[in-house]
Fold this sequence. Notes:
The protein is built from four helices and three strands; from the N terminus they run E-E-H-E-H-H-H. It has about 120 residues and is of the alpha+beta class. The protein folds into two domains: about 45 residues, no CATH class; about 40 residues, Arc Repressor Mutant, subunit A (Orthogonal Bundle). The chain has a three-stranded antiparallel β-sheet, covered by helices on one side. Helix 1 packs parallel to helix 2, helix 2 crosses helix 3 and helix 3 packs across helix 4. The protein is globular and about 45 Å long. The N and C termini lie far apart (about 40 Å). About 20% of the residues are buried.
Amino acid sequence: MAMMVIGLDDGAEYILPWSFGEDQEKDTAAAMALSLFRGQVVHVSIQPEQDWSVPPSGSLSLHEHEHDMVVEALHRANWSQTEAAKLLGITKRQMFCKVNTHKINAPPGHRWIKAR
């Protein structure tokens, strides 16, 4: 499996699996990352298949990356699932499912904003 390397304007780099359509979940997570960092991406490259089986020390799993991206999008959208879904390029239903899957709750003092 190849890896997508996303470089941001602050110097951070994210390395995510990219399967060219063979694993839709992994490809969707990488596409969500691109959507989340819109306007901050300096470069994107697909690295050839290598031995990526041993993750670097302290790296996050795909599940943790997705959780962090969903929370960041919700934060940017003032906890509106509809607006966060737009930021990530997914449907409202997909966002609702991701919030439930990751057991994400609105922080104290915030409520989920209902879609209109």
